[in-house]
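S., here's the first fold you wanted:
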Amino acid sequence: MPEYCTCGAKLVEDARFCHRCGRPTREEPIVVEAEVPPPLPAAEPTPQERLARLPVSFGNPIALRVAFIMSLTIMFLEMIPGLNFLFLVWWLGAGWGAVLLYRRITGMALTVQSGARLGSITGVLTFLAMTLVLVMTMAVAGNQVLESMVKQNPEMQQVVNDPATLAAMFLVVLVVIFCLVVGVCAAGGALGARAMSRQANTKA
């Protein structure tokens, strides 16, 4: 730093400006801040991606569609003579197939819990379809069904003659079938999700 300013005044040691004329005693480095470009806006998810991110529930249209397709498939299989005896296998496969179809549509791998939920939704729809078929069958050939039940077990005559007991027995049968269908389908969904997660880990 010079001792004297250009105006002739003696400068104070380490002074940045002249006390007489205000002239700077040395050039200050100019710091130029680099302009940071604004962040790019996040890409808007497509409607399909937005639906795929929804939790697996009855409010997820893709999950409902998958469960409906699998329930119809199971109903058709159970209508084929001989194959209807493998109903437990079909219910288990319905949950597994629902998880597989959901992944193919959305590209998302389900957790075991989500797979079980998807399987249970499939089970509920399968039960509703079975109940509808059963009600239609009873409406068309209900008397023949009851007569055959009495022939196979004469003790059923008392139940058939008592409408309240018959309705209670019918309700109990429906509850048992509901728990069985939903439980087996949920187990199939959980097993399917677990198998797919293992397959993905093996490939990784």
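And the second, which I think is the more interesting of the pair:
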Amino acid sequence: MFTGLIEHLGRVAGVDERGSVRRVRIETPLAADLTLGESVAVNGVCLTVTDTAGGEMHADLGPETLRVTTLGDLGPGATVNLERAMRADSRFGGHFVQGHVDAVGTVGEVRTDGDSRWVTIGFPRPLAAYFVRKGSVAVDGISLTVADLTDDAFAVMIIPFTWAHTNMPALRAGSRVNLECDMVGKYVARAVEVFRAGEGAGSSRPDNAT
């Protein structure tokens, strides 16, 4: 579990092909504190630390991760958002982020508004039920608030601090980003779906309901 509050910007040192698995090596000061098997969100994707060496963390990308996220686009020199899994004894900010990407979105526009930026991102229509105005969304692992919403796109306002401490300055029209919708919203939408299906079947209650 993560919060969507980025701890550090890492730099991709290299990408190694190992059969059907791709290993990404990321330079980061966090490497010294990481343990093998630990979870780290890389651009919003929960990855397992497979090795640490020389100020780098290594993680393996399987075929499914390469298919459903933007991590397959990473190459040497790319900047990535990093967040270690949240601790049970720490303060909680942001929102509940699992590191499980729901879809890849496409940046439509980046525009300046004073010292802040507006970023508009298109999303696949099947995700529409999971977005609400003033609700939460993780974009490349960054916890953000939906400020505007249409049927197939949302807009977020990025304050100067977030702009300076994440990889968002690299975004351009056409950039692909990992999207994870608010977990609470997904459970609500699923509950409504199951309830409606139950009504159609003549009952929405399980056999052991009291």
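Why I say that: DSSP finds three helices and 13 strands in the chain. The first strand starts at residue 8 and ends at 18.

Talk tomorrow,
H.
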